[in-house]
Design a protein that fits this description.
The protein has ten helices and no strands. The chain has about 210 residues and is an all-alpha fold. Helix 1 packs parallel to helix 4 and helix 4 packs antiparallel against helix 5. The N terminus is likely disordered.
Length: about 210
């Protein structure tokens, strides 16, 4: 069983950095304005993605993500990048390099030899949603995912117009909150699936003696 780096999926840090660059670019094209208008413009363009990067706390998942992070730090030495995002970006690159170095060196026999303890049920523990609960989760999570999917098919000018309209209607901030909460919710489900995958790979290789 070979361990490979994902090349077809989108690394979340790539998307976050693209959002940051787009926000900075959008702000930079605005005409001269009052301080009050400038504050509102900043809140509608680069400040949200800046906050995302300032609070980034996980490794880059792909080589492309690591490169994008380093490129943004490099640009920050000469241009506009806020120094507050440099440390999280460098940490993300280091996390990627360390995890991939370990993955490249590990053998199938070593994977087979990994020991782990089963989770223990506790009172009031989290459990996967039931079929009925899944139906109820359609709003907000599946609704939010559909809106996110639709947004990805819009051009930059179309999205600027959409965001401006949502802001004027007073629903942009709630939507951004929903996107953030839905992202975190699905990350938890993804973690469970990945953890189970890793344990089952180890168990499967133990059965075959570490052979593919």
């Amino acid at each position: 069983m070979a361990i490979t780096t994902c090349t077809t999926c989108t690394d979340p840090i790539v998307t976050a950095i693209a959002d940051y660059r787009a926000g900075m670019e959008a702000f930079g094209t605005l005409p001269e304005m009052t301080k009050e208008d400038e504050a509102r413009a900043a809140a509608a363009t680069y400040e949200p993605p800046t906050e995302v990067l300032e609070n980034w706390n996980r490794p880059a998942e792909t080589r492309a993500g690591a490169i994008a992070a380093l490129e943004l730090v490099r640009d920050g030495l000469d241009h506009y990048v806020d120094a507050s995002i440099a440390v999280p970006l460098i940490a993300a690159v280091l996390g990627f390099l360390r995890s991939n170095a370990a993955a490249e060196d590990i053998t199938e026999a070593e994977i087979a030899a990994i020991e782990f303890e089963p989770w223990v049920h506790v009172t009031d523990e989290w459990t996967p949603p039931t079929d009925e609960e899944w139906a109820n989760l359609a709003n907000p999570h599946l609704v939010t995912i559909r809106m996110a999917w639709m947004a990805l098919y819009k051009t930059k000018p179309e999205l600027v117009e959409l965001v401006d309209g949502l802001h004027k209607e007073g629903i942009l901030e709630p939507l951004m909150d929903s996107l953030n909460e839905t992202s975190k919710w699905f990350e938890g489900l993804c973690m469970i699936a990945k953890s189970a995958l890793g344990r089952m790979c180890s168990a499967g290789l133990s059965k075959t003696g570490g052979a593919a």
